[in-house]
Amino acid sequence: MSFIDADPEKQGSNDNVASTGSSENVIPKEASLRPIHGWKWAIAYASMISTTFLFALDNTIVADIQPVILDLFGEVSLLPWIGVGFALGTMCVLPWGKVYGVFNVKYVYLFNITLFEIGSAVCGAAPNMTALVVGRVIAGVGGSGMYSGTLSFVAMLTSLKERPIYMAGSTVIWGIGSVLGPVVGGAFADSSATWRWAFYINLPIGAVFAPSYLLLVPSVDPQPSKSWAEKCRMIDWIMTTMFLAGSASLVMAITFGGTLYAWSSGNEIALWVVAGVLLVVCIVLAKYHPGVDKDNRLYPAHFFKRPILVNLQLQMFLVSGIVLAMTYYIPLFFQFIRGDGPLDAGVRLLPFIISMVVFAMGNGALMPKLPYILPWHLFGSALVVAGTALLYTADLSTTNAKIYGYCILVGAGSGCYAVAGFAVVQSLVPVKDISNAVGAMAISQDLGMVIFLAMAGSIYQNLALQKVTQAMPTLSAADITNLVAGTSSHTYKALSGEERDLVTPQITDAMRDVWLFFLVAGVVSFVLTLGLGRTRLKGANDTEGEVECCH
After folding, report:
1. Which of 416, 417, 498, 510 could cross-link with 464 by S-S, CB 3.0 to 4.6 Å?
2. Where is this region: Disordered (predicted)?
3. Beta partners for 28?
4. Tens digits of per-residue pLDDT, 18-69?
5. Contact at 8 Å (CB) between 234 and 222?
6. How far apart are CA 26 and CA 5, in angstroms?
C-alpha cells in the first residue's frame, strides 16, 4: 500500500499533506499521518536505525584490522583503497537523497539494504585485496543509500515537534556504530573467527530485521502520479555523474598524495585538476542547468542565498569529520603509546563514545525546550577546541586518565551539536525543501567524514614516513607503511624492543599534527557559531510554518 493512498480516516485529509512544487514531493506535516503507530512503529524505527548502525560500523571497522589484512594479502599499494573504496561509495548519499524524493522510498531502501549485504558478503569472502576493495565500494554505495533512506523516512513520517528526538536517535546510533567499529573489528581480528566476520556480521543482523523491513516499514510513494519514465527524467543524471567523479578525484588526490604518488607527480596533479574542474562544473550546473528543473537539480543552489543554511552545513562537515577521524586515531594512538592490541585499543574509545552519546541524546531531548542553537554550538565547539588542544599536548608520558579526559571533552562537545543540524535545517525551510535540506546535511556529514579521514591519513602517513625513515633508514617505504598501520602489523612485530623504542616516539610525534588538524577544525567551527545569531528550532508552541531565524 502506498502511504499517500492510505485511508483518510487513519491518515488525515489531503489538507495535511504538502506538495513540493514542481517536484510534487509529498511530505506529511504531522506525526499522525504515519500509517503505523505504537509497537509497530517502534519496531519499524528500530529496524531503520539498525541499518544506520551497520553503515556506521562498516565506516570504521577496518581501522584496526588493516595490518592483519595486509599480512594475509600483501599488496601494500592497495591498502589505502580499503578505506577509500568505502568512502567513494558513500559519496552516493546525495544522489540517493534525490532518488528517495522521486521513487517509492521503501523499494529504494530495500534495494540499498540488499546492495549493502552483497558488498559485505564479497568483503568477507574476498580471496585477495582487489576483491575486498570491490566489496567495500559496493557496501559503501548501499550503506549510503540505507542511511539516506532512514533520514528520508524520519523526515516524512514525523512532525517538526518530535523530529529532533528521532533525528537524535538516528545520529546517536550512527555515532555509536562509528566508534564501535574499531572495537568490533579488533575483537574479530584477535579471535578465531578472524577479520572476515567483521564483514560477515552484517548478514545475520540484516536477516534478523528483514521481516520488519518487508512487513512494517511503510511504503511511501512521493510521486504517485508520475510514470517510471517521468520519474527517471526528474533525476539530474549529468550533475550526479560530475559530482561522483569529482568527489572520487578529490578523495584520491588527498589520500594518495605523498604516499602512493609524489605530490609533484603527473598522476597527483591530474587528480587535483580533474577534481577542481568538475567542482566548477557542478557549481555551474547547480545554478544553470536548462535541461533540469531547478527543484530537481542535485543540489539546491538557492540554499547558497541563505547564510544560516550554509553555516549549518559547514558545522556538520566539521564536527562529523572530527568525530569519525577521532575513532581511527584514538585506538592507533593507544596502540603505540601503550602497546595495546586492536581490541584493547578499541575499548579505550568508550569514554569518547559514552560522552558523545549522553550529550547527543540530551541535545535531542532538550532542544525543543531550549530551541536557540547558538548556546549548543558555542558550548559544544568550545569543548571540542579544548579537548583537541589538550590531545595535541599528549605524549608517551601522559597518563591514561588525562587522555580519557581529553577524549571526553571532544565527545561531549561534538554531542552537543552533531545531532542538531538535521532537525534545525528542516525547520528553516519550506515543506517542499525538506528533502533537499536532509540531502544537503547528509552530504555535508559524509564529505566531512571522507575528507577528514583522507586528510588526517595523509598528514599521518606522510609525516610518519618521513620521521621513521630518519630514525631507521634501513626500512623500505613499504615496510614503514605497514609499520605505521598499527602494532599488530608484521613489520612492527618483527622489531626488537630497542627498535620499537626508537620508532614509537616518531610515530606519536607525527600523530600530534593530526590532533593539530582537528584543533584547527574545532576553532573554525567555534568561529562559525558567531554567525548563528538568534536562529532557533521551532518549538512546541510554534504553529506549522512559523520559523524564527537569522538570514
Report:
1. 510
2. 1-23
3. 17
4. 333 333 333 334 444 577 778 888 898 999 999 999 998 998 888 778 778 8
5. no
6. 11
Residue pair 190/343 in contact by the 8 Å Cβ criterion:
yes
CA 420 to chain CA mean position, Å: 15
pLDDT tens digits, 520-530:
999 999 999 98
| Contact in structure between 153 and 253 (CB atoms under 8 Å) | no
C-alpha cell at 314: 559547514
How far is it, in rounded angstroms, from Cα 326 to Cα 330?
6
114 burial (CB, 10 Å; 0-12 / 13-18 / 19+) is middle
Q: Where are the domains of the chain?
A: 3-236+292-531, 237-291
φ, ψ (nearest 5 deg) of residue 215: -105, -30
Helices 307-338 and 350-366: crossing angle in degrees, nearest 10, is 160
CB atoms within 10 A of CB 392: 18
| Ranges of H-type helices in 298-433 | 307-338, 342-347, 350-366, 373-393, 400-417, 420-427
Candidate from 217-221, 288-292, 337-341 with smallest mean pLDDT: 288-292
- For residue 428, pLDDT beyond 60: yes
Angle at Cα 349 formed by Cα 348 and Cα 351, nearest 5°? 95
Burial 502-521 (b: 16+ CB within 10 A, else e): ebbebbbebbbbbbebbbeb
Amino acid 261 reads: Y
Question: Domain 3-236+292-531: which CATH class?
Answer: mainly alpha
